[in-house]
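Researcher: I'm preparing a figure for a lab meeting and need a structural model of a single chain. I don't have an experimental structure, so a prediction will have to do for now. The sequence is pasted below. Please return the structure as tokens so I can convert it later.
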Amino acid sequence: MIAPGTFGVRYPLDIVQIDHTQADILLVSELDGQVIGRPWLSLALDVATRCVLGFYLGMERPGAATVGLLLTRVVLPKAAWLAKIGVEADWPMRGIPRVLHLDNAAEFTSRALRSGCREYGIDLMYRPVGTGTRCSPHGGRHAAR
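Model: Understood. Here is the structure written out token by token.
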């Protein structure tokens, strides 16, 4: 485990920060005008470069499966996925993070995530409890050194 507050970031993929937010938008069905709901956005950001390494957008509240899908998008090349969704863009950022920086949500403290990260040599660093964006002016944000 890496001690919270130590952000000696020198290289891409040294520390990758992951979090979720529910979008401030309501999706409405084109067929019947019924409200479908608010989507959730999960992001993985590289602290050193500030690049988005991956994202997942879904209607269900984030859980272990969401984190697994997001990490797959972080690690794997994105060209095939971008082509599948009809996007012509270059998105070369990918790889296995050295450290994941996370809050204390259940999906980030699960045995499955800890085990998978241990298998690939990824350290987990958790923000201290009570330092989320609602409790602190800085939340989980930080500046790379």
